């Protein structure tokens, strides 16, 4: 993850956590991760595991979306497989 992405993600997570009136420890408990993970994420550490980040985002009700010029083609291919 590059520095800009980790910085923006840190700000988004911290904003949502505070709006939810959760401490870092409370969010960690809710997400099922260690409290240092939330601290590290909010400080912009970029070596966290993707699934750990996903657990925190899920706990805060934040969704990820994937975008690319080929995404519509990919969605059609996935629909054909089902």
Note down, in words, how this protein is organized.
The protein is mainly alpha-helical and 82 residues long. It contains five helices and no strands. α2 crosses α3 (35-42) and α2 packs across α4 (50-59). The longest helix is centred in the N-terminal third of the chain and has 17 residues, at 3-19. The relative contact order is 0.15. The model has no long low-confidence stretch (mean pLDDT 92).
Q: Which spans of ≥5 residues are poorly predicted at pLDDT below 50?
A: none
Reported for the largest beta sheet, the result is:
none
Tell me the number of strands: 0
Strand content: under 5%
Number of helices: 5
* Backbone CA Rg: 15 Å
> What is the CATH top level name?
Mainly Alpha
Query: What CATH architecture label applies?
Result: Orthogonal Bundle
What form results from the Cα inertia axes?
elongated
Helical content (DSSP H or I, runs of 4+): 55-70%
Mean pLDDT: 92
Q: What's the CATH superfamily, by name? A: lambda repressor-like DNA-binding domains
Total tally of structural domains: 1
* Topology pattern, helix = H, strand = E: HHHHH
CATH topology: 434 Repressor (Amino-terminal Domain)
| N- to C-terminal distance | 32 Å
Structural class: mainly alpha
Short summary:
The protein has helices spanning 3-19, 24-31, 35-42, 50-59, 71-81. It has a single domain, classed as 434 Repressor (Amino-terminal Domain) (Orthogonal Bundle), CATH 1.10.260. It is mainly alpha-helical and 82 residues long.
């Amino acid at each position: 993850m590059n520095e800009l992405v980790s910085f923006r993600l840190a700000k988004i997570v911290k904003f949502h956590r505070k709006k939810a009136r959760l401490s870092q420890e409370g969010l960690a408990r809710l997400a099922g991760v260690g409290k240092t993970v939330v601290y590290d994420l909010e400080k912009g550490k970029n070596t966290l595991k993707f699934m750990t980040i996903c657990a925190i985002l899920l706990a805060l009700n934040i969704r990820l979306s994937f975008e690319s010029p080929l995404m519509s083609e990919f969605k059609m291919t996935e629909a054909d497989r089902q």
